[in-house]
Specification:
By secondary structure, the chain is α+β, with helices and mostly antiparallel strands. About 35% of the residues lie in helices and about 30% in strands. A hairpin with a 5-residue loop joins strand 9 and strand 10. Helix 3 packs antiparallel against helix 4. It is elongated, with a radius of gyration of 36 Å.
């Protein structure tokens, strides 16, 4: 009987000594996902047909490395060839400028004669002044035309350089374009994914993004932190990370970003904040999408537990 009473007394006391939410704890444990620090979807500049795919997911690529060869769809090819053949299209503007330069020469001659007559008292100074204004106006119009021509030629030169980056060879005004183009990587990184429909012979529209490139060292971990816990986390804090997919291998992470706005602003719902941590990944063990268990040091401040 004594033992039974003692057991009841122990059970009555037990809740006060078990850890409860809101008590001091050595760490906050949250679960998040690993993501890349930089991800770039590589867009197609033209409507095209795939010839050859040069990479596969996981391949390391340097900036401007070739990813895929392709050729233009018929209509896109015609339009681009016409653009290169036409060039900067400054012929009409140059013709206008030549006419104005002839007109300027004639007006200058008339002005000079009017000035001589006015100086000898045989001509009107007003007529000389009007001709001087005409000379000034013509010079300004010619300067404007020169600026227009230079601008058009500069834009076309930039366009040729852009086309060179697509073709991988020099492209010159009036010349026949090469038959094949090359899609290149915009950054140094790794091939994250290829579109499921990316095969030789596939049709791709301009703006399609068949290949994604990402940087994998370092990587980021994104976790949602409950509002009662967010004040215990600061930029620069060090956290321990376990990755279940790698047999719970441990990594060290550093807090690099804490959002200021809750992910849900509905007043009836609890608020969570996005926290990002950076993790070195020199051996590329950590892959985007891996689950990561993050152990933050500090105290819990009460309320309901963070969402896992």
């Amino acid at each position: 009987m004594v033992k039974f009473v003692s057991l009841i007394a122990f059970l009555l006391v037990l809740p006060s000594v078990l850890p409860v939410w809101g008590a001091e704890n050595p760490s906050t444990i949250l679960t998040g996902k690993i993501v890349t620090t930089v991800t770039r979807a590589v867009p197609m500049p033209f409507n095209c047909i795939v010839d050859e795919i040069l990479v596969k997911p996981g391949d390391a690529v340097a900036m401007n490395a070739p990813l895929m060869r392709y050729h233009l769809q018929e209509e896109a090819g015609r339009l681009l060839q016409r653009e290169v053949t036409t060039g900067a299209a400054t012929e009409e503007t140059r013709s206008q400028m030549l006419n104005m330069e002839r007109q300027l020469a004639e007006t200058i001659a008339q002005r000079n004669k009017a000035q001589q007559l006015a100086a000898s008292g045989l001509g009107s100074r007003q007529a000389s002044g009007r001709l001087e204004d005409d000379v000034t106006s013509l010079k300004q119009r010619i300067a404007l035309l020169k600026t227009t021509i230079e601008k058009k030629e500069r834009i076309f030169d930039d366009r040729l350089k852009e086309l060179e980056s697509y073709y991988g060879v020099p492209v010159r005004s009036g010349e026949q374009l090469p038959a094949s183009l090359v899609l290149t990587s915009p950054i140094t990184g790794h091939v994250l994914s290829l579109s499921g429909t990316l095969n030789p012979g596939a049709l791709l529209n301009a703006g399609a993004t068949p290949i994604q490139i990402g940087q994998l060292d370092p990587v980021l971990i994104q976790v949602h932190v409950y509002e009662a816990e967010i004040t215990g986390i600061s930029l620069g804090d060090i956290a321990s990370v376990e990755v279940p997919s790698l047999n719970n291998k441990k990594f060290t992470a550093r807090v690099t970003e804490i959002s200021w706005v809750s992910t849900d602003m509905n007043v009836s719902n609890p608020s969570y904040y996005m926290v990002e941590l950076q993790v070195p990944n020199p051996d590329f063990e950590l892959k985007p999408g891996f689950k990561a268990v993050v152990h933050f040091g500090g105290k819990k401040t009460g309320g309901q537990p963070p969402r896992q």
